[in-house]
Request: fold
Amino acid sequence: MALRIGVVGFGTVGQSVARRLLDTPDPRVRLLRVCGRANGRERPAWLPRSVGWTTDFDALLAPDIDVVVELVGGIQPARSWLHRALIAGKSVVTANKQLVAEHGQELLALAARQQRTFRFEGAVAGGVPVVRAVEDGLAGDRLLGITGILNGTCNYILSRIERAGIPFDEALREAQELGYAEADPTADVDGFDARAKLAILCAIAFGVRVRTSDIECGSIASVTPDDFLRAGRHGCTIRQIASAERTEDGVVACVKPTLVPLDGPFARASGAQNVVAVRGELGGETVFTGQGAGGNPTAVAVLSDLFAVARRELSSVPAPAAAGAARKRGLALVPKYA
Amino acid sequence: MALRIGVVGFGTVGQSVARRLLDTPDPRVRLLRVCGRANGRERPAWLPRSVGWTTDFDALLAPDIDVVVELVGGIQPARSWLHRALIAGKSVVTANKQLVAEHGQELLALAARQQRTFRFEGAVAGGVPVVRAVEDGLAGDRLLGITGILNGTCNYILSRIERAGIPFDEALREAQELGYAEADPTADVDGFDARAKLAILCAIAFGVRVRTSDIECGSIASVTPDDFLRAGRHGCTIRQIASAERTEDGVVACVKPTLVPLDGPFARASGAQNVVAVRGELGGETVFTGQGAGGNPTAVAVLSDLFAVARRELSSVPAPAAAGAARKRGLALVPKYA
Reply:
């Protein structure tokens, strides 16, 4: 039995997810239907006839879909769609950081009531599995702080100001020409993108809800080549750092351009690389680094979430291991966790 | 309802786990009984009377125990104990790398047949949640390679040879005096410790079983101060590196002293720090760094496993979120994944 999957949103990430679902030999996931946007894209030629194409989201609420994957982004209509999907008994996987930051709690609660799964690994740090590493792998610790580079666009712009000695405006224009920054760069440059991801991390790491509007944001637009020279004299460089600390009565969080030591993990992050350092009472500092954006890394997160849904919702009990049959050249397949 | 926990093994890790279980406010886990070794330790005074003390493992097979936590290490008697625990209907959490490397497959299969859980996050890289990050968080990728520093003792010895310019024997003696190396240092120095962890990572990342005896090991005992001088001339240093690559017909894996670039993540690992870099077809390189040994970091891994067992086996369905009641100073509790 396979999870029958409906995908809404067919941009870079949506297409990567579809290709990966079509490629994977794993029998637990099957791409059944794609919903492209009404105003847009034609059905691409590479999509096999076995996959349905629609521009009507309601087609993903049909009884033959088990999981809805939302890759459109933005609060609306995604929020209404995912409500309706959960109420229709679907599980939901999303990479939508704004939606999870603002309404993750309500969607998690609804999913729990519906006994469905709601997952969002792709919403933070792309392919770096920081959501489950923190929520599950560090669940045994009491986490005290998070520090991270969560926005690759700012990384690119800052490293151009640093290395080429050009002003912010020129570095931004370059990033836009190369497709690393949007026409409206506000979300990246002013920290709103990173703060949505930080709010999600706060919920997971500290178990408290931090409203995005309560997270102070500083823009990188005022950073100059001279700032880098001064930073360098102190053995530092400048990065857009998102940080949150547990305090006695809650959490203090902010996103802003920050001095970081040249020999530390943050200074070395380049391009779309994300870095998340988590500090725990018992475990000390644990650092996760990897590709924080892009179609393929985010598709890894989405697929991993789908396999997690499969583990939870496909009720197959693994057969006893047939050790003899599985051996080949001294290697035998190891059963994955049931 | 709580998971009732029996711990066997009361060394550094066992004591950290017990303290953390007694400290945690989480109602899902309850330390019920500890099995110290027959030839050894008295019941410690800090253990409250509510926790039973025994030197007979069979006391952990009683019907009032739900999960057995094994922290003794070594193949026997741990293997028989955990077989008996699974057959008695317990779930099992262990940090025993040799046992999981050699017999993880058989124990996982038995756990699946018994519909119980078998987890071993603490067996690899201590507090760094690399088992679940790889197995669960990168499940959506096809992993191609693993490179890691999995043994902190070797790290310490190599960095002493490098910085103090002393020969291996002297650095080893220092490490032994400081308690970083065992009286018999073979397992660490000759790579057997790291290769057991690498075998576990291969099973998780590639889904293939690699016998530890098939993993080539090179000792760090032959590394000299001169080797570091030569390495430095090429912008490198020397670390004990465990690596595995997926090949057409299986996996090639080895553990040996290796040149690593000074500006990369491996050169910077110090003391008990572990580093695991995983390379995926879609996600590129993802790096995990943190405390790879010690009582407290390993206790984080064990506790995290226990919470995973609780999520799976305690059948409580979360109540609808009482948003109003949970709010405090603008913060509201976020429900964890059900």
About this structure: Chain A touches chain B through 80 residues (CB under 8 Å). Residues 24 and 30 of chain A are 9 Å apart (CA to CA). DSSP finds eleven helices and twelve strands in chain A. The first helix of chain A runs from residue 12 to 23.
